[in-house]
Amino acid sequence: MAFYNGARVVALLLLVSTAARAAGDGLLLNGNFEYQPNKSQMNGTRVMAEYAIPYWKITGFVEYISSGQKQSDMLLTVPEGAHAVRLGNEASIQQQISVTRVMYYSITFSAARTCAQSEKLNVSVAPGPESGELPIQTVYTSSGWDSYAWAFKAKRGLVSLIIHNHGEDDDPACGPLIDSVAIKTLYPPQATQSNMLKNGDFEEGPYMFPNAPWGVMVPPISEDDHSPLPGWMVMSDTKAVKCVDSAHYAVPHGARAVELVSGLETALMQEVRTVPGRSYRLEFSVGDAGDGCLGSMQVKGYAGQGCTTVTYNSQGTGGHTRASLEFAAVADTTRVVFVSSTYTTKWDGTLCGPVVDDASLVCVSQQQPPARRLLRL
């Protein structure tokens, strides 16, 4: 009992030291769960003490998983390092982080579904109303692991990040695996005269793990100011779009792009202020990510009442084409939408799709003044 109390005091000190450290871009403290709990605070794989995992507080049925561990006839793998955690029914992990008030942050973490078919994770920060439900039932990689992003605006200088599984499975241990939790400060770009789209080149976005070759999934998000892909909303029920980088993929422009991996089930959208009657030109690039995604791909670009369909025949090795759409605004706000009208899979059966990048919107003509009436003398 004395040892348990001593371990609890040490864990509390670790939690306090976590709160005193400013959040920099990269893994949270013990974000990859490689610092192990003491065996005296575990029952098999289940973690029994709420502060047993260094720098984390747990609630509910949480397991500490080693890579290669078996669950029934399934082999559990870990994407980074040798350990991860599994969140069972009503289980959560949380960590206090020091942030800058009113700044925007993106959280990236890796997750893998285990036994449930429609697993979801709730990610939130406290204090504050920010929370999001991330569907993880679709698997986008052959390894079973995907990285997900979620964003928030800091209301306080000290917040608690909470990842929670609201599971109701008959097996209380059933739930997703979590690994590699990281944070990144976001600096949302603003619209300019040369480009009315915010973050049209997708260069500002979530933290991407240097050694993870599968990109980062941005799940449905209907508020662009709280998006891990600043300026953009992801419209879908359960599917996501994928942020890809030039270190692991073919990117048409710059260091990042977005791969539309979910066909008609997901749309990438941004609302732009326009003047009714004025003409505008939307330009964007469509290509493939060089990830072995083969076949004829189609991207539809919408702006106001205008629409263009771009067909790209992918060889799976990279490349892109440029598209343009001119339209007249009919309202004070115009929606710019990109959606893939084709469903494509790679040789291993995983979803893939066309890449969209380097999108720009400019005004090409001013509103014509009303015609003058001639007065008869």
Automatic annotation (TrEMBL):
<feature type="signal peptide">
    <location>
        <begin position="1"/>
        <end position="22"/>
    </location>
</feature>
<dbReference type="InterPro" id="IPR052437">
    <property type="entry name" value="Pectin_Meth_Modulator"/>
</dbReference>
<protein>
    <recommendedName>
        <fullName>DUF642 domain-containing protein</fullName>
    </recommendedName>
</protein>
<keyword id="KW-0325">Glycoprotein</keyword>
<dbReference type="InterPro" id="IPR006946">
    <property type="entry name" value="DGR2-like_dom"/>
</dbReference>
<feature type="domain" description="DUF642">
    <location>
        <begin position="196"/>
        <end position="359"/>
    </location>
</feature>
<keyword id="KW-0964">Secreted</keyword>
<feature type="domain" description="DUF642">
    <location>
        <begin position="26"/>
        <end position="184"/>
    </location>
</feature>
<dbReference type="Pfam" id="PF04862">
    <property type="entry name" value="DUF642"/>
</dbReference>
<keyword id="KW-0732">Signal</keyword>
<keyword id="KW-0134">Cell wall</keyword>
<dbReference type="InterPro" id="IPR008979">
    <property type="entry name" value="Galactose-bd-like_sf"/>
</dbReference>
